[in-house]
Amino acid sequence: MSFFNRELVLGRNPHYDKGVRLLDQGLYQEAIAEFEQVGPSDPAVYRLARFHLGQAYAELGQRYLQGGLLERAEAALRHAIEIHPRFADLHCSLGIVFQQQKRYQEAEEALLKALEINPRFAYAKLRLGICYLQQGQTERGWQTAQEAIALEPRLHTSVYQKALQLREDGDLQGALAALEQVRITEVEDIQFHTRLGDDLYRRGMYAKAAEEYQKALHVNGAYPDLYNRLGVALMAQGDYRGAEEAFRRALQINPRYAEAQANLVLALRGAGREAEAEQALQRLAEIAPDNPLLKPPAE
Question: What are the pLDDT digits (tens) for 191-200?
């Protein structure tokens, strides 16, 4: 999400404005209905409406997944991926849907796609290990799970230790069941801190918002969107150096993350580094030629 960019076009389309309000309230289906009514006559508004439409579908997919409504989750996540094909977490979530439906080959493909986008996505690798185990590939599965823990030591929780002990005891089904629980606390922590950060940002409490995004990143630093959020909060405080670092971290994970690239341009401009901002703008033109920053200001 880019709070900064979306505010640039507020007031130009009533469906966009209403969609943003509904999205912030967690009314995802209603937000989708509004964003889908935004036409292409204003390219800047249309592009951001599409971005938030994908976000609304992603949030709706997560809600359905958590509620066990797997067919609806799949449909929502597919819509989100159509709009945001380079968001690794969406492919990972779709893989989990397939795993719960016992569609293991499709799950493996989705998880491999997530890792193609972000090779250091530890949780996607852990889920891939689980997928191998579910298909009876025991040695490959545990090896992949161990690789995930090496990527992100915070996944080495007490639940993971329990899985290892059950495996040692010969209870492979119990070990697999425990392994599938490893991330539940992590997910809840990330979502809690991210949503609290979003709320604090909207209320103008930028320093507190940045603290919450940093807490989410301490749980798992593999999410470029969290770095982007952190950068926006830091930029709102005038900390352009810190914002630049956060946006560059996001782009290390996903080099084609257009929102982070656009925000990097703004951070460099804010710091008065015009030559570097122009270079960043040229990169933005390569990956998102319709970005509002590339358009001349309206008369």
Answer: 788 888 988 8
Query: Using CA atoms, how far apart are residues 28 and 238, in angstroms rounded to an integer?
Result: 32
Query: Residue 245 is encoded by which pair of tokens?
Result: 């670092």
Query: In this structure, are residues 166 and 181 in contact, taking their beta carbons and an 8 Å threshold?
Result: no
Distance of CA 299 to the CA centre of its chain: 35
Residue for token pair 């570097």 = 276
Q: What digits encode the pLDDT tens for the residues 150-200?
A: 988 878 888 899 999 999 999 999 999 999 888 755 666 777 888 889 888
Dist CA 100 CA 213 (whole Å):
30
Q: How confident is the model over 74-112, as pLDDT tens digits? A: 999 999 999 999 888 899 999 999 999 999 999 999 999
Residues 6+ apart with CB under 8 A from 293: 262, 265, 266, 281, 284
Residues of the domain holding 59: 1-85
Domain stop point among 139, 160, 182: 182
CA distance 223 to 250: 7
Q: Quick one: which of 290, 296, 294, 298 has its CA closest to 280?
A: 294
CATH number, domain of 222, equals: 1.25.40.10
Does residue 9 sit in the same domain as residue 28?
yes
What domain count does the chain have?
Answer: 3
Q: Is the pTM of this model over 0.90?
A: no
% residues pLDDT > 70 (the chain): 94
Nearest to 82 by CA among 72, 91, 92: 91
